[in-house]
Design brief:
The complex is a heterodimer of chains A (about 160) and B (about 220).
Chain A lengths: L1 H39 L14 E2 L4 E9 L4 E9 L4 E8 L27 H4 L8 H22 L1
Antiparallel strand pairs in A: 1-2, 2-3, 3-4
Chain B lengths: L4 H14 L10 H7 L3 H25 L8 H23 L1 H12 L5 H11 L4 H31 L1 E2 L4 H4 L8 E2 L12 H23 L11
Antiparallel strand pairs in B: 1-2
Helix pairs in contact in B: 1-7, 3-4, 3-5, 3-6, 3-7, 4-5, 4-6, 6-7
Classes of the chains: A alpha+beta (about 160), B mainly alpha (about 220).
Chain lengths: ~160, ~220
C-alpha cells in the first residue's frame, strides 16, 4: 500500500520536474548572469555562458563559479577577483541555509557579504566564523580559498 | 454529498473563522511570522499553502479507504511532501524572484502542523467533496491571517502596501504599490520581534471580537509543535 502511494507521488514529482526543469535552469542562468553583470558593473557578451567560467584576463579581472558544502547542501558562489586591487567579491546564487541563521550570506537578505567587496582577497581567507553559523561561514572561507586557488592555476 | 447546503458552507466557514488555523488553533506560526514581512511575500506563501492543503487533503481523502491505520502517518507525510515539492518547483519556474525570497519557507510547509492536522482529523475520515471544502476553508483562513499580518507589518515597517508586486504578477504590476507614509513609522515591525508583537496583538483582538460576538466558551487550544 505504502509503496503504491510512494510510486504515485514519485510519478507526480517526475512529471512536474520534467515540465519545469528547463524554465528553472534558464531562471538560474539569467540570475547568475545578472549577478555577474552587477559585480562587474558592465555587460557580459551575449554569447557568454556559465560554462565559460573562469572568464576574464589575468591583468584585469577573473570571474569564477565555485561551490562549497554548507550546512544544508551545496552553496553556489560567483566570485570576481580584480587584479589591480587584489580584491575578491563574492555573491551566493544558490543555497538552502537555515532562514534567519545561515541565510545572511545571501546578499538579497543581508549586506554581510558585500562588506568584503573592496577588501584584499586575504580578508576572506582569514574570515572569523559567525557565531551560530560556523558551518556556513566556514563554507564562505573555503569557497574564497578555492576561488583564489583556481585563479592562480588559471593565470599560471 | 446529500447534505443541506448550509452544512457545506458551515464546513467551509468554520475553517475560515471558528477554526482559523492561525488565529484560533495557533498552528503554522513559523511560516506565518517569518514570511509576513510584506503583503506580496504573504500572498506567495498563502498561494503555495493553499495548493498544498487542498491538493494533499483531497488526495488523502481519495485514498482513505486504502490507507492502513498503522501506515497512515507515513502516507500523509509522503503526500504532503510531494505536493510541497511540486509547489516549490512551480514557484521556482514561474515566479523566480519571489522564489529567491521565500523558497525556504515554502519548503517547510511540509512541517506545517495545520496540514497534517487537517489530514488526520478530517481528510482521512470524510468524503472528497467535504474534504475539499474543509481544506479550502482552512487555506482561506490561513491566507487571511497571513495577508492581514503581512499588510499590517508592511504598513508599519515600510509605509507601503503591495511593494514588489511585480515579483508575483509580472512587470505589469510595478505600479500597484501604494505608498501611505514616507518611510516606516515603526521599522521594528519588519523584524522578528515586531512579528511576535503584531501577531500577539492581532490574536488578542480576534479572540476578544470572537468572544463578544458568540458568547461561547473559548475554544480549546490545540498544541503547537
Amino acid at each position: 500500500m505504502l509503496s503504491i502511494v510512494a510510486a504515485l507521488c514519485g510519478l507526480m514529482l517526475v512529471a512536474t520536474k520534467a515540465f519545469t526543469a528547463e524554465q528553472i535552469a534558464s531562471n538560474h542562468h539569467s540570475y547568475a548572469l545578472k549577478t555577474i553583470e552587477h559585480l562587474l558593473q558592465q555587460e557580459v557578451p551575449a554569447t557568454f555562458s556559465l560554462t565559460d567560467l573562469p572568464y576574464g584576463e589575468c591583468d584585469n579581472y577573473i570571474v569564477n563559479q565555485i561551490s562549497a558544502a554548507g550546512y544544508v547542501g551545496e552553496i553556489q558562489y560567483l566570485t570576481v577577483w580584480r587584479a589591480q586591487q587584489d580584491t575578491l567579491s563574492m555573491r551566493v546564487v544558490r543555497h538552502s541555509e537555515t532562514p534567519g541563521i545561515g541565510d545572511f550570506i545571501d546578499h538579497q537578505r543581508s549586506p554581510w557579504i558585500t562588506q568584503f567587496d573592496f577588501e584584499s582577497a586575504q580578508a576572506f581567507t582569514t574570515l572569523d566564523g559567525v557565531s551560530g553559523a560556523t558551518v556556513t561561514s566556514n563554507s564562505v572561507r573555503r569557497a574564497a580559498i578555492g576561488a583564489l586557488k583556481t585563479k592562480d592555476i588559471y593565470c599560471g | 454529498m446529500g447534505e443541506p447546503k448550509t452544512k457545506q458552507t458551515r464546513t467551509f466557514s468554520d475553517g475560515v473563522l471558528k477554526r482559523n488555523p492561525a488565529w484560533i488553533q495557533l498552528l503554522g506560526l513559523c511560516p506565518l511570522l517569518a514570511v509576513s514581512t510584506t503583503v506580496v511575500n504573504a500572498l506567495g506563501l498563502a498561494l503555495a499553502s493553499t495548493f498544498v492543503v487542498v491538493g494533499s487533503n483531497v488526495c488523502i481523502s481519495l485514498l482513505r479507504k486504502f490507507i492502513l491505520q498503522n501506515a497512515r502517518l507515513a502516507v500523509f507525510v509522503l503526500v504532503i511532501a510531494s505536493f510541497t515539492t511540486i509547489a516549490t518547483l512551480l514557484l521556482e519556474a514561474y515566479a523566480f524572484a519571489l522564489y529567491m525570497k521565500i523558497a525556504l519557507f515554502v519548503q517547510i510547509i511540509v512541517t506545517n502542523c495545520m496540514i497534517l492536522g487537517r489530514a488526520e482529523s478530517f481528510a482521512s475520515r470524510q468524503s472528497v467533496g467535504k474534504t475539499f471544502l474543509d481544506a479550502l476553508g482552512t487555506a482561506v483562513g490561513f491566507s487571511i491571517a497571513l495577508i492581514g499580518l503581512g499588510g499590517i507589518r508592511e504598513i508599519l515597517s515600510q509605509g507601503t502596501l503591495l511593494a514588489g508586486a511585480e515579483l508575483l504578477f509580472g512587470s505589469a504590476a510595478k505600479g500597484w504599490t501604494i505608498t501611505l507614509t514616507d518611510g516606516g513609522l515603526w521599522p521594528l515591525a519588519g523584524f522578528a520581534p515586531g512579528a511576535f508583537i503584531v501577531a500577539g496583538l492581532l490574536f488578542a483582538l480576534v479572540k476578544s471580537l470572537g468572544r463578544a460576538s458568540t458568547e461561547q466558551p473559548p475554544m480549546q487550544l490545540k498544541g503547537e509543535s
